[in-house]
Amino acid sequence: MKIITTITELQQNIRKDKQKGETIGFVPTMGFLHEGHQSLIKKARGDHAKVIVSIFVNPLQFGPNEDFESYPRDRDRDAAAAEEAGADYMFCPTVEEMYGSESVVKATAEKRTDVLCGKRRPGHFDGVVTVLTKLFNITTPDTVYFGKKDAQQVAIVDALVRDFNFPIKISAVDTVREEDGLAKSSRNVYLLKQEREEAKELYQGLLLAREAIERGERQPERIIKIIKEHIETTTSGEIDYIEIYQYPELTSLETLSGTILVALAVKFQKARLIDNLILSI
């Protein structure tokens, strides 16, 4: 696996690969790779001749009171994880390499951002679509891979690819979980011991919601109540949101039908965890 830090070098390698007729799978990440990221790399490895993983903590995604400086970083660890999963290139640009002097043009997400995490992090998804526009143009992949845990991001990337006519296929990969159901996340390391034990109940709350839907419940507010009562009873976390939307449109619904997203976020002392289920009714 090659570790590359400049756009020019990466594009030179990509041109050589494409001249050989090789296809490219791309996994954009902010690093501190775990098994969830590795599942994306492995899926790309199975689909394509070449796999690119980017490691870039994007400052545009962080608000003034968020954890950009303290966001976990470990390039050697990431390199070992990426290589083990089958990556050919690990692209690790600096902020200066990605953005250079002050940008003149930035992308803006107009819809699908005023709910869930986007509602609570104004400007966050503008940073996401800006950096992904740059990364898609730099890597020119055939397929880009995302985890379903970040379901709102997948919905917005779906719109980005469609609206900007990127010739890219999006592959949304199932959430990778610990044995007790907790979704893998770089932020899980911030959980205290007791919080880690409680954190598994987030997924259990979602499973209770799925069971209720399978029994025929179609009222969103009743499903939300089931999850809320479970989390409040079994954890010390503070519920940030529990919301249900049509997917991927992320529009409200009065009665559950079609493809829906049941999503939640819970704050612990030093970690805010998100999880969701995408269900077809």
From TrEMBL:
<feature type="binding site">
    <location>
        <position position="176"/>
    </location>
    <ligand>
        <name>ATP</name>
    </ligand>
</feature>
<comment type="similarity">
    <text>Belongs to the pantothenate synthetase family.</text>
</comment>
<dbReference type="InterPro" id="IPR003721">
    <property type="entry name" value="Pantoate_ligase"/>
</dbReference>
<dbReference type="InterPro" id="IPR014729">
    <property type="entry name" value="Rossmann-like_a/b/a_fold"/>
</dbReference>
<keyword id="KW-0547">Nucleotide-binding</keyword>
<dbReference type="InterPro" id="IPR004821">
    <property type="entry name" value="Cyt_trans-like"/>
</dbReference>
<dbReference type="GO" id="GO:0015940">
    <property type="term" value="P:pantothenate biosynthetic process"/>
</dbReference>
<feature type="binding site">
    <location>
        <position position="61"/>
    </location>
    <ligand>
        <name>(R)-pantoate</name>
    </ligand>
</feature>
<feature type="binding site">
    <location>
        <begin position="147"/>
        <end position="150"/>
    </location>
    <ligand>
        <name>ATP</name>
    </ligand>
</feature>
<protein>
    <recommendedName>
        <fullName>Pantothenate synthetase</fullName>
        <ecNumber>6.3.2.1</ecNumber>
    </recommendedName>
</protein>
<dbReference type="GO" id="GO:0005524">
    <property type="term" value="F:ATP binding"/>
</dbReference>
<dbReference type="InterPro" id="IPR042176">
    <property type="entry name" value="Pantoate_ligase_C"/>
</dbReference>
<dbReference type="GO" id="GO:0004592">
    <property type="term" value="F:pantoate-beta-alanine ligase activity"/>
</dbReference>
<dbReference type="Pfam" id="PF02569">
    <property type="entry name" value="Pantoate_ligase"/>
</dbReference>
<keyword id="KW-0566">Pantothenate biosynthesis</keyword>
<keyword id="KW-0067">ATP-binding</keyword>
<keyword id="KW-0963">Cytoplasm</keyword>
<keyword id="KW-0436">Ligase</keyword>
<comment type="pathway">
    <text>Cofactor biosynthesis; (R)-pantothenate biosynthesis; (R)-pantothenate from (R)-pantoate and beta-alanine: step 1/1.</text>
</comment>
<feature type="binding site">
    <location>
        <begin position="184"/>
        <end position="187"/>
    </location>
    <ligand>
        <name>ATP</name>
    </ligand>
</feature>
<feature type="binding site">
    <location>
        <position position="153"/>
    </location>
    <ligand>
        <name>(R)-pantoate</name>
    </ligand>
</feature>
<comment type="function">
    <text>Catalyzes the condensation of pantoate with beta-alanine in an ATP-dependent reaction via a pantoyl-adenylate intermediate.</text>
</comment>
<feature type="binding site">
    <location>
        <position position="61"/>
    </location>
    <ligand>
        <name>beta-alanine</name>
    </ligand>
</feature>
<feature type="active site" description="Proton donor">
    <location>
        <position position="37"/>
    </location>
</feature>
<dbReference type="GO" id="GO:0005829">
    <property type="term" value="C:cytosol"/>
</dbReference>
<comment type="subunit">
    <text>Homodimer.</text>
</comment>
<feature type="binding site">
    <location>
        <begin position="30"/>
        <end position="37"/>
    </location>
    <ligand>
        <name>ATP</name>
    </ligand>
</feature>
